[in-house]
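re the bet — no i am not wrong, look at it urself. input seq straight from the record:
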Amino acid sequence: MDEAGIEALLATVTPERVRALSAQIEARQPEVNRGTAPLWEILEELMHDVPLMDAAARYQLELRLRKAVKVAVSMVAGMSLVEGDS
């Protein structure tokens, strides 16, 4: 994926999209975990259509997406991002 494609993908990480993805993921969670949507699952959804790339490039893309998701979450009332140890 070239830089233009990455920028286009990053532009899709809006507060509305993150809220919608979180709601979809949360609905699939076991009842005990309802109210949560793991960041890795949000990233997986965002990267669903990303073509295969080498591990280093994919990791760099994931870092950029994480940052974009964090910004988007900060703009959604009632949502918060809790980072874990992993």
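see?? The helical segments are 3-11, 15-28, 39-46, 55-74. told u. also Residues 39 and 82 are 9 Å apart (CA to CA). so pay up
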